[in-house]
Amino acid sequence: MHRWRAYDLVFFDCDSTLTRIEGIDELARLKGLFDEVQRLTAAAMDGEVHLSSVYDRRLELLRPTRADIRAIERLYRASVVPDARELIAALHHLKRQVFIVSGGLAPAVIPFGESLGVPRPHIRAVDVAFNRLAGRWWDYHLDRERFNPDERYLDHDAGPLTETHGKAGIVRQLRAGHTGRALLVGDGISDLMARPAVELVIGFGGVVHRERVAAEADVFIECDSLAPILPLSASPSDCRRCAHAGYGPLLRKGLRLIHEGLVHFRNPAMRERILKAYL
Length: 279
Known about the structure:
single chain, alpha/beta, Rossmann fold
């Protein structure tokens, strides 16, 4: 009998994984500095330079306001990757623990993650400090959350998520309160570098195809959909439960994309095992 073992914890990157955009690049577009910042972002995500060496540089160039970052959150929501929301709902139905670990800015990533159904304690991103006396600091009714929208960037938490190798430590911290096997889904080199902290790394190339991620991830999704994560993370018996709860179309789409060769496996035997498990 061919068995496919389920994963109990599922970690997602945010930018270019759950959403089609890179938040920092969109901030740069707002500021008219897209080309310069995009080159820095691409070099870091492709592993050409360390992420920490460009993180400070980009934010010092952009110096976003709180309103700017709120605009990025809205773009995140408008640019959700196909099947992301349904997948997270299906994983929660199966009692899986879902997390987001991102090098994006927390004021945008956290509310976006919550809008997808990921609980706030399960989301990690880069904290930002603002100058609260910028602009009309006294006029709190300007912002629906009673923050001054003109607050301007001062500094950020230069912690593990601003480093290429930093995700592994954050994933380990989050795993400490949970049992079971874990997988991580992401598009960049920082996601590959988290391999020691999880049992499976799934590269996502549906937004940006990075050659090194495609070559080194245990599984690589080539298509613009996160549907394959459901059969990859759950067991066949789990998925039968999903089908009864209305997630059958998502499961069938994920299996079809695997069968059509749009999901690549470093170990071909893994692909055969999962397809036979669902016969």
